[in-house]
């Protein structure tokens, strides 16, 4: 076929006879057999000892093709070894000169499947493949596919669009993997989105593939970061910030100094990574992180955009928020005000830098967001007063109560708290983490007291996937409360159902929770929930699928119709026996 002709076209340029030549010889000769013999002699393997060996192989019925093929394979292996050796020996200029000459000679045969590996191997070892050859490879889909990643990097670094096409499906896959974890049907307070260590996360397929594609190439690394920034701006999806940090730390693990030393965030990210591993910012690391932030020089403010993206990674926010809650509890014990704690102020500074990432990258105004004094003088003391309320209540419960009736748990929320959650992003984030904290402590009273404040929060943060994922996990600790009408009404009617119809993700999280806890919920409540949660025409596949799973489970729980209608044996109607009179 035409493919064959193209495949062997390169042989003639090298003065090697091919099938066309044999055809020509045979067409123009008088004695075909002699001509064939001569062609074999001229183009066979030139080894005198073979003259006698070949007829011997013929007697054993070994086809010449098979023999030539095995000789060829053997030679190709030797050649591949030799190419790899050349790439390591002698002076740098000399070895590359040798490889370039070899590429010049062999490139015309690149379409021959048997020779292709050799040509590819030569290119792989050349730090700079000639532009013309790269263009030819790029123009041919099959050649491009067959190329080593070392050669592809040389093509990508000058073709952002092509590199984008390669990276794009990986980024989609990454986001999908994150969402699958957040919406997973396994709900537990022990295992959640944040349970995996940073080291384990970096072993993920996408991070590994991107690391491999980038190699030591700073230009490609910068391109990936540019993609991540652009996508973060376009979608506001914070998982891109996680990938930004994971990629840098993956290159750090491999000690790729070519890249790590030029990324100004490297040391900051490395230090923060250690905090994320411990899920806590200790004092020593706090000082270190502060040093990096204070050390941003005039004229280098742009690095704040990168640092803010690193701090916007949900794993970083989670660590900072958990540390903040721990600090607040310590302050209650020490009778210290938030504004007197430098460690706490640093945590807030990093939280607001992280939460301000999108605005900073969007506006390209690189300065740290101003911290609102109210947050420190009013909001945090308010949270501390909740901690105190809990202590007081617990102590009161233990006191002998003959002289006084039982002291009720404070049920109202200060209006200021609700207002802060609606209007201040950092306050909202910390408030939500405080609610996760009391849920994890199985503190039902505190949970029910603060729950109404979650219906309206800053940019609907209480209905974000990460918060709902953590909340549903922690609620499994209060599973026994689900039997109580009052608890269910507060949680479902008072919170979840207020957003279900306008937010598909909330609908999904409620269904996840019920799939897990339906057997704990009071039957009457369960029935009304099943009605309320029925998918609409607008609902997506995921909601319908979850709803069907739930319905199936509830179907199995119902007593069978036989059990319901069974009547006591006493009241069985007597069989009608015809009386003799009616005969």
Automatic annotation (TrEMBL):
GO cellular component annotations of the record: NELF complex
Pfam families noted in UniProt: COBRA1 (PF06209)
Region (Disordered): 557-583
InterPro entries, per the entry: COBRA1
GO biological process, one term: negative regulation of transcription elongation by RNA polymerase II
Name of the protein this chain belongs to: NELFB factor
Species whose genome carries this gene: Donacobius atricapilla
